[in-house]
């Protein structure tokens, strides 16, 4: 039985805590949060204790840390945990600064601990199912990937200002999808975008709509379109054209009810947002993390995957500013 | 906190035990099974104890019993539990014999306990979502219901011989759907059928394919078609025509992957069988049962619903044998 | 080049005239209608002449007659045309009276002419595509057929009163589908129904909603549900369960636009009514008729098919009145 | 009645000839083709005469010319026809050379004749239906357009070598869709691509897979992905995100049959290629051309639209070569 702690008792911390508590082979011992009542409530819900980071890292029984606190704490916590010899599950991103993130990865490597980054989309049943079929050769060699990734609405401006920009905050997941599905690294990135939904986003120095083109070393193409505001909800799809066919990953709906009125035939909107859409994926990634620790097998989304996605986000940001494609090394 | 026991540690008992264990407000204290090692394994998985029925009913802390043992034990266990003042959740059917089932219901009524029958389909997100929209008047008054209910394959002959026949064993769920969706009681039932997939089913005195027509007191029509063997899997759909439109409840798929090959465009088969298809429904019905006990509110699927569905199964069986429609009282 | 005449310049006569005019190998020479201006307008639109029935049948150049006049004229016109040695395409039904229809068929047989009945649904690309795949063995042996057949609204009462009742007027197409798809003749028919949409239909002696169950000689099952009024339009679907799978024939939509709003995801309603839904089928049946005449090959929907469908309609009508299933000889 | 001639009796000339022949208000008088037997066969099929271009343009009865000959003849024929005072329907493109195409447009303007370019996709029921709903404000202001445009296979190398390259030959339709749907002109174009399906395409100096990003003057975004070879056939879809929702235009299938086997649920592939997919669109564009001539109303796809699409193709070609985005004037 692995004793674990969750750091961060916010929206995503709650998800992880529940999944840790519900998973065989792992036990939730501690919850930490800078907001103590939040930590307390979450700990009580799962029969765990409240502790601070030092207490957690100082407990030799603790083998695994789940980091779900704010982005700026990720790198320091990863390093502290690694030095304390704890295995780490950390929400994306490692850090908004690539140099800092690389230093962090070096620390993890030196410490020899497992560090998994929470690219939960790879564990979504639909996305994972598609990837498995692609990997099995069902449509031959992948040639082109089209990713549609839209949120139901923009986050608060305060969040946006500290987010690192849309490419680092929102597209980092899509960059990971690109690498994972095309099985090839980016050669060049071109990014453009606009602020179309709300001028205050532009005032905050960001955009809300992007179009990104990635060309891989093998010449495969990936086009990503994103928007902060899709009036119909959370839109998470991709499709990959291969030499022998195509695989599409569609949205998931709450129910399979179809309604026929005098005017139209209609179905449900997609699942409302990431907590609903990726409910199963969040559980599956924790299960995968635990299985990796128990079996000593590698994790599927490493800190290196976190760095690679961040490199793409950086390149896209530079491309957007310069107006020209950026070639990666 | 409600202390509960699960009786029966088979396939469906395991589902209910896990849902009881995972639900707030209720605690799994005991598991019982005639096969002691099965009870033990299930109890241990959820930190519960093994007990026999007498021990469970004799423990004054126990407020609720979940009956998931074989069909022939349902009626005696319901009666024992009722007399012991325990609230009851029981898998369908109450009994294969209507007279016996009625006696059972009388005992429950005298005891004044809650008795919920596990018509889990009413708790399926798609079916429940449809019913809520129908009840809200979205398509006006219901006029016609078409139910398609097909299993991926027939159960073992040994099971079939003791099942009470296809109308009592398989269509009892569909009869409940009919009453629930049309909101009206049957006036007449006509049932016909055939044995088409496997002659040994006929040898066992049963059929594998049925077509049932129910006409309600208000003249609404329900047609149910069932098959023991659908080569493509578990098919659970219905559609209701109303005066202002139609609502369809479709199958649920494991993933939303669509594959385009040189020959076809394809999607997943429906969820494999009832354990997968109704996974959320099983959890929701236990949550509903607990909420009813906690809040003192009525349950949605009562022992009377169990009787009414059984009356329809009886009528359908008689219609099939006689070749003529049967009028209900 | 086959010279042909169309008798009847109403809605369906116009369709047939245009298809005859547009088909290679056949030429529209005459149009006849009891309403002379209607005949004139239609004739002029296609460069044809107006004639009366006697004139048409007396012209030795005429080889083929398309009968699209009112139902009560079908039998006499078929007989006159047959005796004149003309090949015949006649809209369904042959006659509302089975004895009269049989006499008519005898006359056709004696005359040795081709007589095709306009069961256009067999020529619909979707329905015909399904049947071809079924016949090729794609899903093994057919076991169960579920037919949904609903109109957008009831015809005028005046029409209803002379229609022969819903089983002869509306379900005759569905009875033909049953025979065609199951490839087996009916052993018994049970029909029930109600008047739910408009009491004046009941006053006119008819019903608007039916549920019909047919059991074939091989024990295959067919359930047909029909309604005169589906608020969402014209609903024409069927699905056949076979020993190795299922084939569904869905509705056809005017466009493939999908709209995502803040409330729903929606697509087009089905094609509005039979003229739109079966536009291609009407053209294909005329092409088939012409090809049969040119090549001396048999037609796919014979006058015998017309009789058989009428026998089923008669049996269903009797079953509805008696409340008991009717066994066919 | 408008007398018309079709120049070019190849695949697309046959389509136009049949549509001209079948349309009220216009009459096919002549067919011309450099391959005389082709012209003869097509003329005979529609009761027209064979003529050469001089004969056609010299006949004062001729009001309209449909140009369906090879691309290199478009510009000279447009100019000759314009100078002869004939109205013109010309297949895309006006010319592969933008300067030449502009000169051609000047000639048309001077002559004051109608010149419609055959961007038939604007007349496809699905695409046109979507655009009408967008124009009616159903989803607010358009913000992002995603176009998927894939052929079932590459044309012969000989064709490719004279095609002007994939951007001029294949994407010219997609560039027209972009302008039509976004209702805004391009500000910048970035194009990249690869040769992935067949190295001989690269040897011929072309590519087979492209990703193009257009940013309009209003900041709207359009991403186009194309491939010469989609193993599953002809894929023609687009979707537009607006401020209040999204509209998708899907592929069209030959039938609405869905097949359920032991392994999968499958539907038809999309219509095979452009002749099938745009069958209705080809008829509708000719009907629109005729209506414009008869009513003196403007055509929907002018020679200026042809120039604008060509400007985008030129810009995309330059962007691909230079590796940098191209700003339009």
From TrEMBL, chains A, B, C, D:
Highest taxon of the lineage: Bacteria
Signal peptide feature range: none
Every Gfo/Idh/MocA-like oxidoreductase N-terminal domain range: 4-119
Domain annotation GFO/IDH/MocA-like oxidoreductase: ranges: 130-247
Entries under InterPro entries matching the protein: Gfo/Idh/MocA-like_OxRdtase_N, GFO_IDH_MocA-like_dom, Myo_inos_IolG, NAD(P)-bd_dom_sf
Single GO molecular function: inositol 2-dehydrogenase (NAD+) activity
Swiss-Prot/TrEMBL keywords: Oxidoreductase
Root EC class: oxidoreductase
Enzyme nomenclature, EC number: 1.1.1.18
Annotated family: Belongs to the Gfo/Idh/MocA family.
Name of the protein: Myo-inositol 2-dehydrogenase
């Amino acid at each position: 039985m692995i004793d674990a702690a969750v750091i961060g008792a916010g929206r995503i911390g709650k998800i992880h805590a529940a999944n840790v508590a519900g998973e065989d082979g792992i036990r939730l011992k501690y919850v930490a949060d800078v907001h103590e009542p939040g930590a307390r409530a979450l700990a009580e819900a799962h029969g765990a204790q409240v502790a601070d980071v030092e207490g957690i890292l100082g407990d030799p029984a603790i083998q695994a840390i789940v980091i779900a606190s704010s982005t700026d704490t990720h790198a320091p916590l990863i390093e502290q945990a690694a030095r304390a010899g704890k295995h780490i599950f950390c929400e994306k991103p490692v850090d908004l600064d690539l140099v800092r993130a690389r230093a962090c990865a070096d620390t993890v490597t030196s410490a020899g601990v497992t560090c998994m980054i929470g690219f939960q989309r790879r564990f979504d049943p639909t996305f994972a199912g598609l990837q498995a079929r692609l990997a099995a050769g069902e449509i031959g060699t992948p040639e082109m990937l089209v990713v549609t990734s839209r949120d139901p609405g923009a986050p608060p401006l305060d969040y946006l200002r500290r987010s690192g920009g849309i490419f680092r905050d929102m597209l980092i997941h899509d960059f990971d999808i690109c690498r994972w599905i095309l099985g090839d690294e980016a050669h060049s990135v071109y990014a453009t975008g606009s602020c179309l939904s709300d001028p205050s986003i532009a005032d905050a120095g960001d955009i809300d709509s992007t179009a990104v083109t990635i060309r891989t070393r093998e010449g495969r193409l990936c086009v990503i379109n994103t928007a902060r505001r899709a009036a119909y909800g959370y839109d998470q799809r991709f499709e990959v054209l291969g030499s022998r066919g195509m695989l599409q990953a569609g949205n998931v709906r709450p129910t399979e009810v179809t309604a026929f009125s005098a005017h139209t035939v209609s179905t449900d909107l997609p699942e409302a947002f990431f907590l609903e859409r990726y409910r199963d994926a969040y559980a599956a990634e924790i299960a995968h993390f635990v299985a990796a620790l128990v079996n000593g097998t590698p994790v599927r989304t490493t800190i290196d995957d976190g760095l690679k996605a961040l490199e793409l986000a950086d390149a896209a940001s530079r491309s957007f500013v310069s107006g020209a494609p950026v070639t990666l090394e």
